[in-house]
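Deliverable D4.2, example record:
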Amino acid sequence: AFFLIRQKGTELFKIVETFGLPLEELRETAFRESADLIQRVVAGNRPVFSADGYEILKSGFPKDSRSVHLFPIGGIDRVDGILVLLNTSLPEEEALEVAFFCSQISLAVENRHLSEERVERREDLLYLTEVLRAIASSMDSEGVYSVILEKATELTGAAQGSLMILNEGTLELEVKAAKG
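Output generated by the structure prediction step:
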């Protein structure tokens, strides 16, 4: 058995832990989301079983694999990881128990994602509040432009920037603030 975890920003799943298999031999093994069995798990976000040797090999599993059970771990609309059981005969009741176990792990993963998202949104809101306070405290428009540019460059990490406004009379952009 082993756990596959999706590599951030890619369609690759890499082995992060094995049980009963030599991890060192498998550590560099990666599975593409487009591989037949992996794709079926990801697309359906539900367990998949196969005893088809050709399908198993084509998906990239070890050559001596006679059967494979794949259980998704992730959120409602995504698969972040997969529990893989090789060469294991699972009665339907046990497969349901493993699927339930993976759904519990999925809840914890989803909670972690939601918590991270909440923290990011809170930080964005605090930043926006800071920008609005700075704008409200500056009465002249030139000062407002400078504050907007300063906060925008802080947010993006830019060393330089400029804020341009369209002059509706001349239809030209005018630099209202510059940094760097």
